[in-house]
Each structure stands twice: as C-alpha cells, then as structure tokens.
Design brief:
Helix content of chain B: 25-40%
Distance between the termini of chain A: 34 Å
Order of helices and strands of chain B: EHEHEHEHEHEEEEHEEHEEEEEEHEEHHE
Number of helices of chain B: 10
Low-confidence stretches of chain A: none
Structural class of chain B: alpha+beta
Strand order of the largest sheet of chain A: 1-2-3-4-5
Strand content of chain A: 25-35%
Radius of gyration of chain A: 13 Å
Number of helices of chain A: 4
Mean pLDDT of chain A: 89
Oligomer: heterodimer
C-alpha cells in the first residue's frame, strides 16, 4: 500500500508527488492513474521517495513506464530522497543511471533551474 | 436441505418442523444452543434456523461458535426473534448471522428466505468448486514448470551445480538452467520476470525455450558457420538478441537475466548481468565478492547496450546466483544479530548453503511474497 500526496509548485512549474509506504502490486494499482495523468499534464514531475520504504518489480516497471511517457515528450521526471534499500535496488537494476536522482526535493527543484 | 431447528418452545419447534418437512427438507430438532452445537459438530447442517433467547447457550453464541468451525460448506444461519430493534439487527449481523426473522414467523416469508439461503449456499459451493479446479490446474502447471529446471546436484564435465526454487504462489517468474553449448562450453542462465503468477510464469517458460542450445541449426545462443562449425555467441550478443526480440513483442514487460558462458579449458566465465541481483564469486578459502558491474534488465529499451564481463574461477571456486526475492529475504532476516546475507556465504560447501537456507525457510511461518531461488556452480577442484 502506498499513500500519495500531490503538491504543486507554481514557481517551478512542477508537481511534486510524495510517495509514502510500499510501492508493491497494490501500490502500483493505486497510483498508476494519478501518476500517468500528471505525466500527461505537467512539464516536470518530482517523485519524492523520502518516505517510500519498499518497491517491488512491478513498482520498478511503473517507474520505467512513467520515464518513457515523459521522455517521449521531452518532459522531466526526477526522483528525490531515495532511501538506502531502494537506492541499492536501483543500483542493481541500473536505474540510477536512467533517472535524474537528487538527495531531496530542494535539490531536485534547484535542478529545474529556478 | 438438511436444516437444524433450534427452539426452546415446544409448540413453535413442532410447527416449524411440520412446515419444513412439508417443503421437502430434512429436519433435525434441538431444544437449545448447547445441544445444537453438539449436533452441528457431529454432522454440519446446511441451514440453521435458531431462536435468539434460550437458556444456557443462546442463538447468537451458537452462531459465533459455528462461524469458528473450519468446515467445508457454508452454514446459512437464520435467527428467529421477537427482538426487532435496529441495535438487535446490528448485533446479530456482526455475530455472523445471515438473516433475521421476526416472530411470530410468517410461513410464506420463511419459505422465501430459505430460498435466498439455498441460492447463497449453491453459489458458495460453485465458487469453491471452481477455485479447487483452478488450484488443481495451477498445481499441474507448477509441476510442468518445475520439471524444466535442472536436477540438483548436477555434474557436467566435472562442474557441479546445486539449485533450489521455492515459488511464492503455485507458479512464478523465476527460471534457471545449465546446459552444454558445445564440448568445451557450458551455458548458464538465471532469469526473473517482472511480477508474479500466471503471466510471469508463461513468459519465464517462453524465455526458457528461447534459451535452449539447439546445435543443429544454431539458436539464440549459437550460430552455425559456413564451414559447419558451431560458434558459441558471447553473452552480450545473446542479451542484445533477446532484448530486441523481447522488446519487439509490444507488451511492456521486462525481466532480469544473468547469462554466462563457462569455458572448461580456461575456467573463465564470461557473463552479462542484466538487472539481476549481484552474482557472488566465492573462492575456495571462503572469501566472497559481489560482481557488481552490469546493465539494464531485458525488454526496457530497444537500443539498450550490454557488455560481457569475465571472471576466472580457480579450482573449487563457486559462483552463486539468486533471485531478487531471495536476496531481499537474506537482507531482512537475521541470525544472532547478523544479517543472513552476511552469514550464509560463510557456510562452506554449496549443498550446505542450500540446506541451511531450506531449513531457515521451512521454519518461516508465512509464505514468501516472492519466488525464492538459488543456483550455485562450483568449478572442478
């Protein structure tokens, strides 16, 4: 199960999606529609993973799908605040080279250049 | 239907029996809750028609107890009562009662309510039967999938291999295999398809068939040259071919893969790690290192690049491969304050590592939420 909170930063034209809990099979079903809708509507999306404790292979699949959708349209999908077990998994599957990843949301916002 | 009537009033009990018998039911009578509880335990009833207020055990308590019994069919419980306030209805429903009838009982209403009960019982038994059938089919599919795995232990040209797989449900997305590519080369793969269940298992089996060494006309793993000789393709060539083929099928799905070619003459293992957990190289003196270089899983990008890595296995060295489920489980489990991921590779012989893991897994109270599998290759001493 995963909880999502959507924050909008008009100064940065970016939406921040805070993920809390476990991005497992249930979690993926829960956030997929919201995530894809935001990918469609926004130019920049920051996924705040500070409180994300677990991600399974379907969760990784969802991230790749979101990456592809945004990348095709030259949009930005940025990850922030990955905790140690998730970071380790990203390293194993080499996703740390795929996504721009920042230590926290502040750094991610800075990277958007404002 | 076999119906139990529980009623302390002789007259009401007799009237109910007469109606039910006339409508073609088999009726057993009980004067109060404790007697009904005993009768139901001896041979469960399809429908229980019980008064609420009775001496000793009342109808609500009887219902609560019946709901705790692990029996095959679903007993449909109708409570008869003169109490008809909102709170009475709520209390009885939370005790597990299915229906609530006010006294005095109107025979036509009772008949109609019994029909509802019969309908629910029939649906429940049909659902159970279909579930059983599906489980049986899945068990058969699991047996087929398991039969594709290599035996353990297995010896090919002095190289010994040990493995185990514990699927989280009946079938899963983990597969591994080892085979001779030619006289001097062994092929080894270990794959894990995203997700679990039937879809993942189908894909895993499909990839398993793609990764077969068919030397007659070449395969994904080998190529027949003009002079008729068979050329063993490098792991990165195999990964690229597999990636193109898998990506082109249009359905977004990916899998992690370790694929290695072990050369018996040079004792070197050339491999690709496409998102699979880090393989472990364990030397004969017990030192172990994670082989961390690697590439993206297969099936994500059409133009993903894959590079072969090489590791030399000295006599008696082991290469340990595992599923992400097992890797995660080793990180989460502890043995006397130390993570199992630190402990397990201190165990010396491959068969002891597997034995140690299997005994730890057997002691688990809950089923794993992911497939757990391990494959160990030991070079000849």
């Amino acid at each position: 199960m995963v909880q999502i909170t959507k924050l909008y930063k008009p100064t940065h034209q970016a939406v921040i999606l805070q993920l809390k809990g476990e991005l497992d099979t249930e979690g993926v079903k829960q956030i997929e529609p919201t995530l894809f809708q935001i990918c469609e509507e926004q130019e920049s999306l920051i996924l705040d993973c500070t409180n994300l404790t677990y991600i399974n292979s379907l969760g990784l699949g969802l991230m790749v799908k979101a990456y592809k959708r945004t990348n095709e349209k030259q949009k930005r999908l940025i990850l922030a605040g990955l905790q140690e077990p998730i970071w380790r998994l990203f390293e194993i599957v080499r996703f740390h080279r795929l996504f721009p990843i920042y230590e926290d949301v502040e750094q991610a916002l800075k990277s958007l250049g404002e | 239907m076999r119906i139990l009537v529980v009623e302390d009033d002789n007259l009401v009990r007799t009237i109910l029996r007469d109606f039910l018998t006339e409508w073609g039911h088999e009726v057993v009578l009980a004067k109060e809750g404790a007697e009904a509880w005993r009768l139901h335990q001896e041979k469960p009833f399809a429908i229980i028609l019980s008064d609420w207020v009775m001496p000793e055990m009342d109808g609500l308590e009887l219902c609560r107890r019946i709901r705790t019994l692990p029996i095959e069919g679903y007993p449909y419980f109708i409570l008869l009562t003169a109490k008809n306030e909102r709170k009475d209805f709520l209390i009885s429903m939370s005790a597990g009662v299915d229906d609530f009838l006010s006294k005095p009982v109107d025979p036509e209403i009772l008949k109609a309510r019994l029909l509802v009960g019969q309908r629910i019982i029939r649906l429940e038994s049909e659902t159970k039967a279909s579930k059983k059938l599906l489980e049986e089919e899945l068990r058969k599919a699991a047996a087929v999938q398991q039969s594709l795995l290599p035996p353990s232990p297995l010896d090919i040209a002095g190289v010994t291999m040990f493995s185990f797989l514990k699927p989280s449900s009946y079938i899963g997305g983990d597969m591994y295999n080892v085979f001779a590519l030619d006289e001097r080369n062994l092929g080894i793969y270990f794959l894990d398809v995203m997700g679990h269940g039937v879809q993942a298992a189908f894909l895993a089996v499909t990839i398993h068939h793609m990764l077969q060494p068919r030397t007659l006309d070449g395969s994904l793993l080998t190529k027949r040259q003009e002079n008729g000789e068979i050329l063993v393709l490098s792991p990165d060539q195999v990964a690229r071919k597999l990636n193109r083929r898998f990506y082109a099928d249009g359905n977004f799905n990916f899998f992690t893969l370790f694929y290695g070619v072990y050369n018996l003459d040079s004792s070197t293992l050339s491999y690709i790690r496409a998102g699979a957990p880090y393989p472990i190289h364990r030397t004969q003196d017990g030192k172990w290192t994670e082989l961390t270089s690697g590439d993206l899983p297969i099936g994500i990008f059409a133009d993903a690049s894959y590079r072969s890595q090489v590791v030399r296995l000295s006599p008696g060295d082991q290469l340990i491969l595992m599923s992400d489920g097992l890797s995660e489980w080793l990180e989460s489990e502890e043995s006397e304050g130390t993570k199992l991921s630190e402990e397990v590779f201190k165990v010396n012989r491959p068969q002891n590592i597997l034995h140690y893991l299997e005994s730890r897994l057997a002691a688990q109270k809950t089923a794993p939420h992911d497939d757990l599998s391990m494959f160990i290759l030991q070079s000849p001493s």
